[in-house]
Amino acid sequence: MSYNPNIHHRRSIRLKGYDYSQQGAYFVTICTYQRNCLFGEIVDDEMKLNTNGEITRGSWLSIPRHFQNVGLDEFVIMPNHLHGIIIIAEEGEALAISNDQNQQKLSSQCFAPTTPTTPTGEKIKINGTKPQSLAAIIQNYKSVSTRQINRINKDKGNVIWQRNYHEHIIRSEEALNNIRQYIVNNPINWLDDEENPANFQIMQVLSHKK
After folding, report:
1. 36 contact partners, CB below 8 Å, separation of at least 6
2. Helix, strand, or coil here: 177?
3. In angstroms, rounded to a whole number, what is the distance separating the alpha carbons of residues 157 and 9?
4. Which secondary-structure segment (H or E) carries 164?
5. 3-state SS of 14-46?
6. Which residues pair with 166 in a beta bridge?
7. pLDDT digits (tens, 9 = 90+) for 66-97
8. Per residue in 98-143, pLDDT tens?
9. Angle at Cα 23 formed by Cα 18 and Cα 24, nearest 5°?
10. Is 63 helix (H, G, I), strand (E, B) or coil?
11. pTM
12. 134-152 and 51-61 are packed helices; what angle lies between their axes, rounded to 10 degrees?
């Protein structure tokens, strides 16, 4: 069953008035174009990365090299999407957090404020994206990983990622730990995952019965 954007697409909604370049912890989900399984497969409840998946993983781990005030927490590459936690620190403060290393307890100051704030001295946007913002980070990641995958596969212009992404602002240590556990358990729950293409057929059949 082919991908139906009218059934399967979830619109990502950004919090109005929120500055996504400010210090905070963010849970992001990035899906492949048309939910194509490009990065490997789940075998015995474990994700087995193919070459594309290894490139995707490496590009994710390289994000702090492009954004020095950004750290990475738990993440997982799935067959057709990625879940990850991005930590944006104060400008000039370097972070080195990765799920390949021992996790450290984040200071409460790393969590986003409970109400939107807009700092003074707005930076000039490039192509509509604010520098050092979450959108800029995701935009850079998609560009780098797409370029590397297409170079390896000798395929110019192949679309890898969906245009948008999904994000959730993490407000507390409890929420952070719950999301970490969700990410760790993602491969185990693949059969029931709404991103699993096998579940698209069920969704479409149910929609036709209404």
Report:
1. 3, 80
2. helix
3. 23
4. none
5. CCCCCCCCCCEEEEEEEEEHHHCCCCEEEECCE
6. 29
7. 998 999 999 999 999 999 999 998 765 555 44
8. 554 445 555 444 555 444 444 444 443 444 568 889 999 999 999 9
9. 80
10. helix
11. 0.76
12. 150
